[in-house]
Each structure stands twice: as C-alpha cells, then as structure tokens.
Amino acid sequence: MLRPSVLRLLKRTGASRLSLLEDFGPRYYGSGSLSARDDASDARAYFTTPIFYVNAAPHIGHLYSALLADALCRHRRLRSPSTAATRFSTGTDEHGLKIQQAAATAGLAPTELCDRVSEQFQQLFQEAGISCTDFIRTTEARHRMAVQQFWGVLKSRGLLYKGLYEGWYCASDECFLPEAKVTWQPGPSGDSFPVSLESGHPVSWTKEENYIFRLSQFREPLQRWLRGNPQAITPEPFHHVVLQWLDEELPDLSVSRRSSHLHWGIPVPGDDSQTIYVWLDALVNYLTVIGYPNAEFKSWWPATSHIIGKDILKFHAIYWPAFLLGAGMSPPQRIYVHSHWTVCGQKMSKSLGNVVDPRTCLNRYTVDGFRYFLLRQGVPNWDCDYYDEKVVKLLNSELADALGGLLNRCTAKRINPSETYPAFCTNCFPSEPGLVGPSVRAQAEDYALVSAVATLPKQVADHYDNFQIYKALEAVSSCVRQTNGFVQRHAPWKLNWESPVDAPWLGTVLHVALECLRVFGTLLQPVTPSLADKLLSRLGVSASERSLGELYFLPRFYGHPCPFEGRRLGPETGVLFPKLDQSRTWVVKAHRT
Ligand code: MSP
C-alpha cells in the first residue's frame, strides 16, 4: 500500500509506482525502514501501567512507570495513527491489608483514603500528559464482577483448594515470603524484628486456612512459554532472572485471607469468610479494563504490553501468567521491566522524608522538561539517582541550548528573512558523495549527517522495541549535536542571500537543518508532546504530516519533490525551551546566535 502523501507525490510528478517504490527502497529511510512493523499497523495494541497503591501520595517513581508506558504507547500511535488500534490503561490498586492499615493509621474510612489518593494520581497523570484511554479503580463494581468471575473459572478448573497456609506475610509488599527471604533486624528498643530481605519491610507470621492456587503445576508451562518467547520479558536480564526463579521450587500460593483479618477486599464467591488475595484482585484489572468477561475482551487480549517496575516482576511474570494459563488464556505478549529511582543515592521513602513530589517537578521544569529528564536519564536495567542539578544541566544543554539553539539558528529573521523553508540545491549537495565541481559545497561530514538522520527513525523504533527509550533519546540528541556541527561548519550567518554564489548554498544549509529538525520534532512527540508540537508548528508541519508514515526525510536529496520547499514557516511563538538557572529559579533567556 502506498501512503496518501506518496500517492499525492506520484500524481504531481507523474512518476511510476514501481520506480518510486524502487527509489524509496533501502536508502530512503522515512517510514520505509519501519515497514516490517507497519505490517501490523492495524493490529491492536494494549499498554498497561501497574495500578498504583493508594496508601500514599504519588512520587516520581510512579510517574516514571506511567511515563514509560505513555511514551511506548505514543510511539506506537505514531507508527499507526489509527487511535482505535491502541488502548492504554492505568489506575489505582485500592484493596488489601496495606490500604486497610494505612486508612486506620490516618483515621479514615478506607473509601475516603482511596477517593483522596486515587484523585491525586488522576490529577498528576492529567497534568503530566499521560495519554491513557482508561483509568481503573479496583473498588469499582465492574472490577469486582470480573475478579469474581475469574475466580469462578479457576475454581471450576480445579485449581483452587482449601488448606492450611503458614508463613511470613509482608503487608507493605502484600506477599508471602519463604523463611530464606526473611532476616532479623535490630529494633529501636534493642530487640530484633523480622523483615523481608528484599524490601526491608516488616513481616509477620501468619497461619490460616485459605484457598490455595495450584501454582506448582505451572512451572513447566511457564518455562515453555518463556523459552518459546525470548522477547516476552524485556530487557533480557529480567527474562533470565524469571527463568532462574522457575528453576527453584514453586510452591502453591495462598490466594485468600480470613475476612476477619482482611475485610477490605473482594469476598470469595460463595464464602464470605474469605477475602480474595489483593494481587489476584489487582492483576485482573488488566482484563476488567478490556471488558472481561464479555467476549469483547478477546480482541485486546493477549496483545498486551505490561510496563512494570522490577519489584513486581514475580507477580507479573509468574503468578499472572500462571493464573491466565489456569483460566485457559494466553500470557501477556510482552512485559517491559524498569528499575527504580533513588534520591541522592538513597531509596525514596516516607520515613526518610526524601520523597520527591512529581507535581513540584512538573511546575519547576515544565511538563515536557520533566518528562524528557525522566525518560532520558532513566535506564531500565539499573537504578538511577535523582537530584535537581542533574535536571537543570540536562535540560539546559539538550533542550534549551542544543535543540532550541538549532531551531533559532535556522528560523531567526536575520538568517532566514523570507521565513520560509528554503530550496535544496542538488548542485551544491549532490546525492553522490565525493563529486567535485564549482558548485559542490557539501563535505564528507555532511553526508555522514544525512545518513545518521536518515537512519534515525529506524534506530529509535528499535530502541523503543527493546524498551531502551533513553537510548532513543540519546540517538536523537547525538543527531541534534551533529546538526549543530553542520550549521557551525557552514556558518550560514556569513553567507549572503544577495550573492548568486552564496544563495543556493545558504538555502541548502538551512533546508537540510530544517529537515533534520523536522525529523527530531516528529521523533520527540512521544516524550515531549508540547515541545514537539511547538517545534513542528514553527516549521510549518501540519498535523497530518507528523506520523512516522509521513516522515520522508530530505526527499530532494533522493531526487523527489519536497512538499515543504518554499512553504512559509509557522508563526514565531518564543523560545522552544526556556533556560533554567542553576539556583532553580526561572530565567527565561532567549537564544540568539
Ligand atoms: N499495586 C501494585 C501494582 C499492582 S499491578 C497489578 C504496586 N503498586 S506501587 O504503587 O507500589 O507501584 C507501582 C509502580 O511504581 C511499580 O511499577 C513500581 O515499580 C513503581 N515504583 C515504585 N517506586 C519506584 C521508584 N522509586 N522508582 C521507579 N519506580 C517505582 O506495586
């Protein structure tokens, strides 16, 4: 299928379909290079964040989880703009002992606490531009119905039995722990108390008659699933860790608690003396959102990408797929795992008083600035440390100076008095490198720039696929630097529009730089949507020209017409990104060359 813009070009140029396709072949990297994935452009994709506990206000780690999912989803929409094909859910996890205890400590009814904190998450996500299509709360009636239905399916398949369950339980992490995962820590009064080795949270001994899920039956099916789907858990080290866990013993799992102990949850159908385990309750949210148990859910499942933090990997990569297999369904297609943010080298915690409020950050650094920071600096494979100076330094250098400076250099009235997208001159910049002639001005480094930017969309797509969004941004940033080098090298401010010798080359330099900026703006949309909009609007790129399918970089270089050539730039609306000062108060400095 040819894209509409290509067909428009075809009509205008009278070129044959075949020759155009050949020409748009391997060297032409618009969306052409993304074609393998575009095949699936009409296929549905369902992205999810974890649902967030409402025991405390959101912090930057929570926002990070949501931003990763948002960027993945936005990038997917950029590949296939049909919004009906993507769904993106987030929400709040409102049941369980942890919330029951937090409400009691705050002197609130659980519903009051849930309403209050859930609202904070919704507000934060709206302010941060999280483009979710669904927000679920586990206290909703539709969810209770879905969970009870799911329970019924597991029961009818003989996967639940009643038995005595005895072991350590950690209310903060809402999980049972084997003896080997518990250690004793000295308390303030000298006596020691048991804590989880992994999280450091207190644990208590529990002995109850519960419903138990036959998890042990699923060791081999889970191993087969993971071995047959090496991309199921990304990045790869996490896939490997789960396979290692599956080499260890996999005991059956208690999936209910005595209601007298845990009343804040969904009752076991037909047995009010038991409340469903909060993780089983919470995981089913991914089905509730897509309409389970109604058949409509099947058009979204299992085309699912769960975005989760490393601390909840076992729940998503072992318990959840086992529950699904048990219920006769497929495991999720992909699980993307990220690491955590620490603050000045320490784990974020209420007791340490070092929790960073994401709304303050969004105000201080702007929504796009803070989104860029978290996604540019956050590395999924290992923890990242937050401190303010890092944010200021990164945003000033990459958004204000490099990107903002580049835009200003190419659009400032002094250099571009006609305020248009100037023409590209093939005599000055022939498509064959190494040609010599009186009008040839392009140098070897300029060809390297064109080739780097031409391959950028594909590189970025691959990084998104591997859940390395920071690498996608690093690649964009490196091309921005290269483009600044190109402008610096040819110093358009020293060239004269009046000179017949300079003018075609001056136009070409600006044309190439604007084309590079158009690529950067398009690729930055998933991470900095408003900033990218501002950039693309300044370049005069219309809304229908902003998808990856429309991204034909530098067509004149490849012998094709360029729809932007001669077009008026969009209106000047001020600096692209205001420079921050080190003392963290705003200094809105304009960038001039
Ligand atoms: N309610 C469960 C998830 C149930 S999903 C069916 C839960 N909630 S949470 O609020 O504790 O965590 C939600 C997400 O935030 C998790 O992905 C978790 O890894 C992430 N983060 C919590 N602290 C974080 C950091 N310090 N840094 C980055 N992400 C962090 O777990």
From TrEMBL:
Compartments annotated for it: namely:
Mitochondrion matrix
Q: Which GO terms describe its biological process?
A: methionyl-tRNA aminoacylation
Q: Which residues form the Methionyl-tRNA synthetase anticodon-binding domain?
A: 444-542
Can you tell which superkingdom this protein's organism belongs to? Eukaryota
- In this chain the Methionyl/Leucyl tRNA synthetase domain maps to 46-410
The protein's Enzyme Commission number? 6.1.1.10
| Alphabetically ordered keywords of this record | Aminoacyl-tRNA synthetase, ATP-binding, Ligase, Mitochondrion, Nucleotide-binding, Protein biosynthesis, Transit peptide
One of the entry's Gene Ontology molecular-function terms is:
ATP binding
Q: What is its main location?
A: mitochondrion
Question: Catalytic activity annotated for this protein?
Answer: tRNA(Met) + L-methionine + ATP = L-methionyl-tRNA(Met) + AMP + diphosphate
Q: What class of enzyme is it?
A: ligase
- A single GO CC term, please? mitochondrial matrix
Write one Pfam family the protein is assigned to: tRNA-synt_1g
What CDD domains would the database entry show?
A: Anticodon_Ia_Met (cd07957), MetRS_core (cd00814)
| Entry's family note | Belongs to the class-I aminoacyl-tRNA synthetase family.
Q: Mind telling me what this protein is named?
A: Methionine--tRNA ligase, mitochondrial
Q: What is the lineage of its organism?
A: Eukaryota, Metazoa, Chordata, Craniata, Vertebrata
Q: Which gene encodes it?
A: MARS2
